[in-house]
Prior knowledge:
The complex is a heterodimer of chains A (568) and B (163).
Chain A: E1 3-5, H1 6-16, E2 21-24, H2 31-38, E3 44-47, H3 51-65, E4 69-73, H4 77-91, E5 96-102, H5 118-122, E6 128-131, H6 138-149, E7 156-162, H7 163-167, E8 169-171, H8 191-202, E9 207-211, H9 213-217, H10 221-231, E10 235-237, H11 262-270, E11 273-277, H12 283-286, H13 289-293, E12 298-303, E13 317-320, H14 323-335, H15 344-354, H16 370-380, E14 386-389, H17 393-401, E15 410-411, H18 422-432, E16 438-443, H19 454-459, E17 465-470, H20 475-484, H21 500-506, E18 510-514, H22 520-530, E19 536-541
Helix pairs in contact in A: 1-2, 1-6, 3-4, 3-18, 8-14, 10-14, 11-15, 16-17, 16-22
Chain B: E1 2-10, H1 15-25, E2 32-37, E3 43-51, H2 54-66, E4 70-75, E5 81-92, H3 97-107, E6 111-115, E7 119-126, H4 128-137, E8 143-148, E9 152-155
Antiparallel strand pairs in B: 1-3, 1-4, 2-3, 5-7, 5-8, 5-9, 6-7
Amino acid sequence: MTMMTGAEIVIRCLQEEKVEYVFGYPGGSVLHIYDELFKQDKVKHILVRHEQAAVHAADALARSTHKVGVALVTSGPGATNAVTGIATAYMDSIPLVVISGQVPTHYIGQDAFQESDTIGITRPCVKHNFLVKDVRDIAMTLKKAFYIANSGRPGPVVVDVPKDITADRCEFEYPQEVRMRSYNPVVKGHQGQIRKAVQLLLGAERPMIYTGGGVILSNASEQLTTLTRRLGFPITNTLMGLGGYPATDPQFLGMPGMHGTVEANLAMQNCDVLLAIGARFDDRVIGDPVNFASVPRKIIHIDIDPSSISKRVRVDVPIVGQVKEVLEEMLKLLDAEKGKPDVADWWAEIEGWRAKQCMKYKLKKDVIMPQFVIEKLWEITGGNAIVTTDVGQHQMWAAQYYKFDKPRRWLTSGGLGTMGVGLPYAMGAALANPDSQVACITGDGSIQMCIQELSTAKQFGLPIKILNLNNRYLGMVRQWQEMFYSSRYSQTYMDSIPDFVKLAEAYGHVGIRVERPEDVEGALKRAFVDHKDDLVFLDILTDQGANVFPMVAAGKGLSEMILADEEL
Amino acid sequence: MRHIISILLENESGALSRVSGLFSARGYNIETLTVAPTEDSSLSRLTIVTSGSDEVIEQITKQLNKLIDVIKVVDLSEAAHIERELMLIKVRASGKDREEIKRMADIFRGRIIDVTETTYVIELTGSGSKLDSFIDAIDKDMILETVRTGVSGIGRGDRILRV
């Protein structure tokens, strides 16, 4: 065996893990690693303009492909800038390995230049983190990092490597397997519990299936679709779970929760058996847990993470296991059963709620309605684009009006709600899925939080289409201020918004301003057809007063929805 | 309800702060926390005394199990167990008080391990509530200093917590 430096070992490990892209930004503590990156061409490095974007882009690669995303940052500010990205991935259980440089071991604790306690700072927002103190530990630590990140409930893992360790030498051998006495995630669900669940489902009169990001992470859409169709039950997908079940299918009731549909929320509230799969009864999904629990119903909960079970809502049949495995077991048991439960009366009730058409909105002659833009985008991309968003009203409209029929096409920050993810997510998605159309739906507030990445997109020729739903407001905050703070618009109007068209052009991209409803379709076609290979920034001036409906106010129950104007 | 949770964890730097950080981040309460390596130096044994509803305790054990460095978690207070805590207490002891303090220490089976003309240091072992009782039993004004280790616990009989 040959002797290698720690830096060489880091790169060799990434090669062994078949990492294609590393997103990062160089600096003093990672110079040795960057030098080794330079000497090879298997691992491609994407130079971002801010470390936060590196982590977001790696996160998007993971969300859209099921691979582990990798980011590389320097010590101190490099690591602290990465924290928002790491926390975003943590909240949505996205597998990442973030390698951070650290000051040399003998400097640690001396308040050295660009020193930060990266392990301490990231501890609450990682699945695990490691400080490597010996060059001989690098290979095993990285092996463990990749294993931990993408097994069990996935999540980000930070590996902090002091500079002197990357210069030290030792023999290199990449471990073939990793075993940890303290970490053995469950895969298979308990047979007895699964049988109990199936019996409960077969006996249900008003059943409801509610699924979240766990279905996507576990690649279980196929099993979920088969199960749902076999049972003939209504289904809803949370914000994180969109694409888990085809949204154009009649059994799909739309998204539940704060901005969910009437039919999804009322079915969640009024069902007698609720099958929750890879979802966590989040406050944005069920509203007030006391109100939610006030209705008698049996709850079956499938989740890989025992701590997600009975955390906010007590469940009757918990099943801990990998969603895909558990659903396969359920399907096997259902094969032995004949017929479907008769839920015709329940469907009749649901169709009554559906008839309210809660997502209907009024088109205006002179002003572009944001919902209309999303519907047009869906048409023009055939519903097949990878859609990334930032956070706010545009995110909710995208979730409501772009009907995702397939998983891993919808990349959004669900748990942490991080403004600024949209553009870097689109970069990661475009690199990892070169044959897909990638659309970034954003707003005039959010896009400015990582706008510098237009430069990265230029450098790497990423043909992203940005749809900036520009209402000259921080729309979601403005909506809350209108509804709950007597229209006192505190700090939500931006009176100095840049000329986004010129800005896009300054970065070397195509910028198009869209001001009239009749121009939306043409502009989208120009972007997706005429400028197929370019990054196009569509600055779309939308209705300033448009609000997201339906809405369940924070702390209220699912049955207490506020609907759009009655005059509709 | 008061619970005594016993944890086996990897004896790695930072492992303790993962546990204590979990408690503060999720708003769980820690009454006492003790930790030391076991006969196997790669393992630490940690005892936490906490309190909360059944739901909270269930979450605490689940969240602890989720930590990568944690190998095993057991709620000792679910079954027969023994708990002990060590206290060193320095008290003012002069004149007629010297005899009184000595007698009190004897009643609680404490030992006087340091003597000066005006002070005693008493070593006392027992459950947390026994130590509390001792403090209550002597005059507050006489206490100069107390130091307590926090509770260590172990299951009775065949209940064994090991890898």
